[in-house]
Amino acid sequence: MVRFDGDAGGVVVDAEAYALRQMHWHSPSEHAVDGRRYDLELHMLHQSETRDGRYAVVAQLFDIGHRRDATLDMVITLCSTSSTIYT
C-alpha cells in the first residue's frame, strides 16, 4: 500500500474534486470483465476535501506482459516522489 501525504493529483466526479490519498494492489484482480479476471488490479483511493471526506475509488486492470505501461510509469514516479510505502 502507498499513502500520499502531499499533492499526488486527483480526479473530478460530478464537479467535485477528489485528491489521491492511497493506492493498493490485488493479484489476481478482485473484479472480472465478462467473467475474466486479470493478473493485477490497482485501486487508487481519492478523498473529497469538501464533501464530508467522501471517497472515490478508481480501479485499473492489468495483464502481465513485456510492454511499458503509462499508468505504471506514473505510479512509479509518484511512489518515488510524494509517498509513504507500506508493505
From TrEMBL:
Catalytic activities: hydrogencarbonate + H(+) = CO2 + H2O
GO terms under biological process: one-carbon metabolic process
Alpha-carbonic anhydrase domain ranges (all copies): 1-87
Keywords from the UniProt entry: Lyase, Metal-binding, Zinc
Gene Ontology terms for molecular function: carbonate dehydratase activity; zinc ion binding
Entry EC no(s): 4.2.1.1
Family listed: Belongs to the alpha-carbonic anhydrase family.
Role according to the record: Reversible hydration of carbon dioxide.
Name of the featured protein: Carbonic anhydrase
Protein source organism: Oryza barthii
Taxonomic path: Eukaryota, Viridiplantae, Streptophyta, Embryophyta, Tracheophyta
